């Protein structure tokens, strides 16, 4: 899952739209930030597979250091501790946001989420493999629903979140089955294929995450633009 993670982040953060946003907005992407880094470092292993779809075009052969359930729990806990200086509340929201990543990945991932590093047992309901392009549309439905919810909720609490919302919708539209840059990368020779994949996964969460934080921070008061 990609844009869906950011949409979950917006929905969580919209309960407190004027609060420091990085614990939640970077938290929802934490496991994939680590995944990108670990792929580049060679700790995680992915293989190009043009049949994999719907927009990843890689098989995630070993992602246990960040996407096993045990790793997800530990990284989420560590993230919560890192957010602690912003108060207990934000630390808890940060940890929940980080763990939401694993929960949201579970339905779509193709049985590649180990219970713990090197475990033979894996989770993942495999909607990516089963539904193909429809899995992307399904993620779009989740994105639109959660963005609408976040927009409304932030509005009730005094912040106009049209731009953060539109950015998340644009991220969903951008990583689509037809124009995904992962598709081109899957045709690159190794090691460039996995290095490109890892870099794109990491930067694909870091850069939009930072942009979202900036948009949330500078969001105008709700209603101002309607009257102007
Ligand atoms: Zn993930």
- Domain count: 1
Summarize the amount of helix as a percent range: 55-70%
How does the helix and strand content classify structurally? Answer: mainly alpha
Main-sheet strand order equals 1-2
Low-confidence stretches: none
The average pLDDT value, as a whole number, equals 94
Strand content: 5-15%
Distance between the termini: 38 Å
The outline comes out as globular
Q: What oligomeric arrangement do these chains adopt?
A: single chain
Q: What is the number of beta strands?
A: 4
Ligands: zinc ion
Outline the biggest β-sheet: 2 strands, antiparallel
Using the CA coordinates, give the radius of gyration. Answer: 17 Å
Taken in chain order, the helices and strands follow as: HHHEEHHHEEHHHHHH
By DSSP (H or I, 4+ residues per run), the number of helices equals 12
Give an overview in words.
It is a single chain. The chain has 228 residues and is mostly helical. It has one domain. Helices cover 63% and strands 6% of the residues. It has twelve helices and four strands, in the order H-H-H-E-E-H-H-H-E-E-H-H-H-H-H-H. The chain has a two-stranded antiparallel sheet with strand order 1-2. Helix 1 packs antiparallel against helix 6 (88-108). The longest helix is centred in the last third of the chain and has 26 residues, at 192-217. The chain is globular, with a radius of gyration of 17 Å. The model has no long low-confidence stretch (mean pLDDT 94). Residues 31-32, 67, 101, 105 line the site of zinc ion (ZN).
């Amino acid at each position: 899952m990609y844009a869906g993670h950011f949409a979950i982040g917006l929905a969580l953060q919209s309960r407190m739209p004027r609060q420091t946003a990085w614990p939640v907005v970077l938290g929802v992407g934490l496991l994939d930030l680590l995944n990108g880094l670990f792929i580049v470092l060679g700790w995680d292993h992915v293989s190009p597979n043009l049949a994999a779809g719907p927009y990843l075009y890689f098989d995630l052969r070993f992602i246990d250091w960040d996407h096993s359930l045990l790793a997800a729990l530990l990284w989420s806990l560590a993230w919560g501790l890192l957010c602690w200086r912003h108060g207990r509340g934000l630390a808890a929201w940060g940890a929940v946001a980080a763990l939401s990543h694993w929960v949201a990945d579970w339905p779509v991932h193709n049985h590649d989420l180990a219970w713990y590093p090197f475990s033979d047992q894996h989770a993942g309901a495999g909607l990516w493999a089963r539904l193909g392009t429809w899995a992307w549309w399904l993620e779009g439905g989740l994105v639109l629903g959660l963005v609408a919810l976040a927009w409304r909720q932030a509005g009730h609490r005094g912040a106009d979140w049209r731009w953060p919302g539109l950015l998340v919708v644009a991220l969903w539209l951008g990583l689509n089955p037809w124009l995904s840059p992962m598709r081109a990368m899957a045709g690159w020779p190794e090691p460039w294929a996995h290095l490109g994949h890892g870099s794109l996964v990491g930067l694909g969460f870091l850069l939009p995450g930072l942009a979202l934080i900036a948009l949330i921070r500078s969001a105008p008061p709700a209603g101002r633009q309607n009257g102007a």
